[in-house]
């Protein structure tokens, strides 16, 4: 509730509270023990339990030092805190923004406690050829990504010093253009098999970065981008100027209809994150459909009434799904 | 603030050209505005205005003072803005000072009228208590808590709301013995006079990005702006002040066009703001 910057009327407030209470009643049945707040006692079976992050031993009890969910791995007991920065895991798909072009690497902001590193050697070159990266490649790094570009990559692993390395060894990774970046709390994005989504009916690409950065943009065919890059590749000097020219007076606009869908999807996600609901593809599409069926304008989705409706819809959805179980 | 990539910038620019901005608004649509009054108990009047993620507080403090020699029959109003470093890292240390000064100057230009006193939102002669002796000095202090573009409009709205929340104690002047002596006043702590805020204008900032201009730009959109014109318009549709930011020049015809658009937009904004202020005041009365 704290994050919502809206003024609700009294009836709306009541309806929202009712929906949220309903949601809470469903979730509390499942795992009331798992969520803890500061100074809650964590039940530990044996003395030999390893106490991990967010726990503290006080006398005979183990208590939580952060708010979150208790996780148990074998003997290890730790608390996974909510509303924290993103904690990367190997294989995560993330969306990040380049903040620095350094020797042989790009540094990316990904809402982790450190900047992530994408090495020149751990990404496919635009021409698609596997070869050693030369000094010329290094000089031409800015023709691939420049500062403040939004790119999509995969978490490759941690170095010994704790820094995070990324890789982009496929055509589906790389620069994202023609769309908008949304930032939501990372705990609202669940790790799934599929993070790249092409919504055919809307002509929109949707990428759920595990770090809470979500990209909503016009659909791009991966192949086309490659051909274009190949054409541009021969002379790096030209590539630079061509890409600059091409981007400054891009002749084709995003079609208005596609843009409407992009904005609708983006607003749906904003509403979800304001209500602290898990963001996933089905929920987003459902919300977009709801807004379309209510005949709402794109911007009206950000108003109080729609927040309430989304909360009610979510409550209903989870009720029926829990009943089915 | 993290910069935007070329792709994103183009996306926003094209969106403005297509009259569908990134959050789904049209070029001349404001974000939802939210007003809360009476947020600072020590002040004579205060208000908090949220415009999307932009969040500002304005407070009005009235003090007894001496009128200036040039205008013995008028009170004084001064506006100060402070940008909290929590709003944006660049406001930290001395970084915010310049920006704060720019905002205060712009607000004074927009709300207090010219040197001649024409176009003043707050009538300075209504602050006079005894000519040449005592007057009210109004200190309007604004704090920027969170910034997501269009600070000037939000501050203008907050000041308007704070002024309509302001109660000034009724003052009785006892007849002073001689003319050069300090006037003897009796400040009532029970009776308060409300301000007439009908004349206080609202500020409409038109931000030019690409070939078009938009109202209520977010900070993302502001990063694309070539120039921005802030026009303050009162209820009668009269222009009370105008300032311009940004490096790029503007054609006079464009400015005239902007003014007429601002007049049109301000009507809706004033009505919206009035109803919000009224709702906030009502909410205040309900829960003392």
TrEMBL record, chain A:
Superkingdom of this protein's organism: Eukaryota
Biased composition (Polar residues): 235-251
Renumbered residue ranges of the record's region Disordered: 231-251
Subcellular location, record wording: Nucleus
InterPro entries in alphabetical order: Exosome_RNA_bind1/RRP40/RRP4 (IPR026699), KH_dom_type_1 (IPR004088), KH_dom_type_1_sf (IPR036612), NA-bd_OB-fold (IPR012340), S1_domain (IPR003029), S1_RRP4 (IPR048565)
Any single GO CC term annotated in Swiss-Prot or TrEMBL for this entry: nuclear exosome (RNase complex)
Any one GO BP annotation for this protein: exonucleolytic trimming to generate mature 3'-end of 5.8S rRNA from tricistronic rRNA transcript (SSU-rRNA, 5.8S rRNA, LSU-rRNA)
Chain ranges of the S1 motif domain: 89-169
One Pfam family here: KH_6
Transferase among keywords: no
Keywords: Exosome, Nucleus, RNA-binding, rRNA processing
Keyword Transport annotated: no
GO molecular function: RNA binding
Cross-referenced Gene3D superfamilies: 2.40.50.100, Nucleic acid-binding proteins
SMART domains recorded: S1 (SM00316)
Family: Belongs to the RRP4 family.
Stated name of the protein: S1 motif domain-containing protein
Lineage per the UniProt record: Eukaryota, Viridiplantae, Streptophyta, Embryophyta, Tracheophyta
From TrEMBL, chain B:
One GO BP annotation of this record: U1 snRNA 3'-end processing
Superkingdom of source: Eukaryota
Gene Ontology cellular-component terms listed: cytoplasmic exosome (RNase complex); nuclear exosome (RNase complex); nucleolus
Subcellular location(s) per record: Cytoplasm; Nucleus, Nucleolus
UniProt domain Exoribonuclease phosphorolytic: residue ranges: 30-169, 199-263
Keyword tags: Cytoplasm, Exosome
Main location, first listed in the record: cytoplasm
Pfam family membership, one: RNase_PH_C
Any one Gene Ontology molecular-function term assigned to this protein's record: mRNA 3'-UTR AU-rich region binding
InterPro entries with a match to the protein in the record: ExoRNase_PH_dom1, ExoRNase_PH_dom2, ExoRNase_PH_dom2_sf, Exosome_comp_Rrp42_subfam, PNPase/RNase_PH_dom_sf, Ribosomal_Su5_D2-typ_SF
Gene3D superfamilies given in the database record: GHMP Kinase, N-terminal domain
Family in the record: Belongs to the RNase PH family.
Protein name as catalogued: Ribosomal RNA-processing protein 42
Organism: Anisodus acutangulus
């Amino acid at each position: 509730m704290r994050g919502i910057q809206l003024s609700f009327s009294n009836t709306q407030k009541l309806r929202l509270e009712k929906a949220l209470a309903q949601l809470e009643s469903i979730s509390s049945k499942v795992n009331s023990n798992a969520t803890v707040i500061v100074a809650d006692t964590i039940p530990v079976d044996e003395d030999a339990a390893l106490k991990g992050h967010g726990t503290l031993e006080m006398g005979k009890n183990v208590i939580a030092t952060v708010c979150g969910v208790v996780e148990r791995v074998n003997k290890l007991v730790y608390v996974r805190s909510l509303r924290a920065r993103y904690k990367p895991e190997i294989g995560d798909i993330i969306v990040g923004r380049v903040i620095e072009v350094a020797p042989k690497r790009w540094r990316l902001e990904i809402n982790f406690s450190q900047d992530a590193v994408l090495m020149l050697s751990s990404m496919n070159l635009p021409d698609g050829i596997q070869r050693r990266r030369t000094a010329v490649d290094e000089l031409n790094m800015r023709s691939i990504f420049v500062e403040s570009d939004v790119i999509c990559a995969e978490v490759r692993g941690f170095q010994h010093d704790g820094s995070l390395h990324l890789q982009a060894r496929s055509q589906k990774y790389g620069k994202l253009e023609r769309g908008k970046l949304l930032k939501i709390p990372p705990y609202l994005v669940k790790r799934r098999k599929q993070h790249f989504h092409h919504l055919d009916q809307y002509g929109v690409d949707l990428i759920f970065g595990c770090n809470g950065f979500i990209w909503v943009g016009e659909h791009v065919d991966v192949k086309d981008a490659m051909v274009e890059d190949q054409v541009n590749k021969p002379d790096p000097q030209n590539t630079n100027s061509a890409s600059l020219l091409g981007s400054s007076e891009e002749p084709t606009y995003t079609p208005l209809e596609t843009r409407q869908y992009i904005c609708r999807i983006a607003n749906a996600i904003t509403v979800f994150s304001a209500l602290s609901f898990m963001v996933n593809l089905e929920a987003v599409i459902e919300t977009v459909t709801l807004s379309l069926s209510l005949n709402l304008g794109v911007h009206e989705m950000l108003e109080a009434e729609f927040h309430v409706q989304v909360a009610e819809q979510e409550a209903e959805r989870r009720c029926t799904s829990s009943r089915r179980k | 603030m993290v910069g935007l990539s070329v792709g994103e910038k183009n996306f926003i620019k094209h969106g403005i050209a297509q009259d569908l901005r990134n959050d789904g608004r049209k070029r001349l649509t404001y974000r939802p505005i939210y007003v809360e009054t009476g947020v600072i108990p020590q002040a004579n009047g205060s208000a908090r205005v949220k415009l999307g993620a932009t969040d500002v507080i304005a407070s009005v403090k009235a003090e007894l003072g001496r009128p200036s020699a040039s205008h013995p029959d008028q009170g004084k109003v001064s506006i100060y803005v402070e940008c909290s470093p929590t709003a944006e890292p660049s406001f930290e240390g001395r970084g915010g000072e310049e920006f704060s000064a720019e905002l205060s100057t712009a607000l004074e230009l927009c709300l207090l009228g010219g040197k001649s006193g024409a176009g003043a939102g707050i009538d300075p002669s209504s602050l006079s208590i005894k000519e040449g002796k005592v007057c009210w000095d109004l200190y309007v202090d604004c704090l920027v808590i969170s910034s997501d573009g269009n600070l000037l409009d939000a501050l203008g709205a907050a000041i308007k709301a704070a002024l309509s929340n302001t109660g000034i104690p009724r003052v009785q002047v006892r007849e002073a013995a001689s003319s050069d002596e300090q006037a003897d006043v009796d400040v009532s702590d029970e009776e308060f006079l409300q301000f007439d805020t009908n004349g206080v204008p609202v500020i409409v900032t038109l931000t030019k990005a690409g070939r078009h201009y938009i109202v209520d730009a977010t900070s993302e959109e502001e990063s694309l702006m070539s120039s921005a014109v802030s026009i303050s318009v009162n209820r009668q549709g009269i222009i009370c002040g105008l300032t311009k930011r940004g490096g790029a020049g503007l054609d006079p015809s464009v400015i005239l066009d902007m003014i007429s658009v601002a007049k049109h937009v301000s009507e809706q904004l004033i009505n919206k703001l009035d109803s919000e202020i009224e709702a906030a005041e009502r909410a205040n009365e309900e829960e003392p």
